[in-house]
Design a protein that fits this description.
Length: 419
């Protein structure tokens, strides 16, 4: 057993774990960062790059129920359930349905609004601190539509968003094509979200966070943490290279967090995974100036330093089944349909990763245990990139026992504990 000379070990070197590592190290704590892969190689590598401050509505919507047959039957649809995984997913789905009640939806929306309304400022502050502001472009984003009935629904939706603090501007067909030349004439209009942003290199963003944390004293080790338990001195972690003990641990392992959370907190959280896909087009980095989402086709296109990233599909099939890359390549067809001229698909590369999803659409941001030695920052589903910087601020406040800038009660672990 190795007793580490660190104040806290962070398990998970994705964007959330690395943002937390920097903020904690900056605050004067000695941080050990652990992951079985190199930093940023999980879901943080392949995300859509969209800082989605406008997405304040929880996943638990009754409209999903009508889509279940198509989810089971269409293997390349935008939202899919692998029928072989359905028995394991069923408890999660029942919790999702429970969260469709008006009161539960309101609580989830409040929690999302609180995080998203502060996320962009948190990112600007964090990137300023690590001298990496150039990795994020603050030019807004568009949600485009191709059918009149969709446009009517989106205009009503825009009013709801505006009432809840989201800055949104409806655009006519002429205005959309002026902002994004080359879109297909079938695009009839859009909602513009000027207070959103996009990351031009998600992997470099994580690596920049790690470099900044290491420069302050953080130690990184590439190993697998497969178990642990509480001790009188703190936390004992069982790893692929033996057992280590630390005074405190932060679990930020995304979709792989459930088992360790149970071992250290005796709480079986209803964490499942939304498998997300992307297709990277290396020759199309200048096709569009801002992120563009299609309302009907349900995918997003984000311009990045090394190409155009097409992303956004959701698949419930667990952590073990092989990727269905046909879903990624299907994005090329969807992308082509939104432009006057075909996309250049030469050298395109597909990817699949795991988003950690809880049925109330809220993450867990908490500190628990007899001495609050188990900290948690996980379950951000498809908003991990968006909420990483504000989550790191909250974890720092908890670690230092300072009054948090946000009301963290919506994100407590105790909401999943049974009597």
């Amino acid at each position: 057993m190795e007793k580490m000379d660190h104040d806290i070990a962070i398990i998970g070197a994705g964007v959330i774990g690395c943002a937390c590592a920097y903020r904690l190290q900056q605050a004067g704590l000695k941080v050990l960062l652990l992951d079985k892969e190199a930093p940023g190689q999980g879901a943080s590598y392949g995300n859509a790059g969209h800082i989605a401050t406008e997405q304040i509505m929880p996943l638990a919507n009754p409209a999903i129920l009508t889509q279940i047959p198509s989810m089971l039957l269409d293997p390349v649809g935008p939202l899919r359930i692998d029928w072989r995984y359905l028995p394991r997913l069923l408890p999660w789905m029942l919790r999702l349905i429970s969260n469709m009640r008006a009161g539960a939806q309101a609580r989830s929306q409040h929690g999302l609004m609180q995080l998203n309304h502060t996320s962009l400022d948190a990112w600007k502050a964090l990137l300023g601190d690590i001298d990496a502001a150039d990795l994020m472009h603050h030019q807004g984003s568009l949600l485009v539509f191709e059918q009149e009935k969709t446009g009517q629904a989106l205009h009503q939706f825009a009013k709801t968003l505006a009432q809840n603090g989201v800055v949104v501007t409806p655009l006519s067909q002429v205005e959309v094509h002026r902002k994004v030349p080359g879109l297909a004439k079938t695009v009839l209009g859009a909602l513009e979200f000027p207070e959103t942003s996009h990351v031009i290199d998600p992997l470099k963003l994580v690596e920049s966070l790690v470099d900044a944390a290491v420069a302050l004293g953080t130690e990184c080790r590439q190993l697998d943490v497969h178990g642990g338990c509480l001790t009188e001195d703190g936390v004992e972690l069982h790893t692929s290279r033996g057992t280590v003990t630390v005074p405190r641990v932060l679990i930020a392992a995304g979709a792989h967090s459930r088992s360790l959370v149970f071992q250290l907190t005796d709480t079986d959280i209803p964490l499942d995974t939304e498998r997300g896909y992307h297709l990277m087009l290396p020759n199309e980095s200048h096709r569009i100036p801002v992120a563009v989402t299609s309302a009907e086709r349900r995918f997003i296109m984000t311009p990045m330093a090394d190409g155009l990233r097409l992303a956004g599909t959701v698949e419930f099939a667990g952590l073990e089944r092989p990727a269905n890359m046909e879903r990624a390549h299907r994005l090329a067809e969807l992308g082509d349909s939104l432009f006057e001229h075909p996309l250049d698909l030469a050298g395109s590369t597909p990817w699949m990763g795991f988003r950690p999803s809880l049925p109330d659409s809220l993450p867990i941001i908490d500190a628990v245990g007899p001495k609050q030695q188990v900290m948690l920052a996980l379950g951000h589903h498809h908003l991990g990139l968006t909420q990483a910087a504000v989550t790191a601020q909250s974890i720092r406040d908890l670690a230092l026992n300072q009054p948090p800038s946000l009301d963290l009660s919506p994100y407590r672990l105790s909401r999943f504990r049974t009597a």
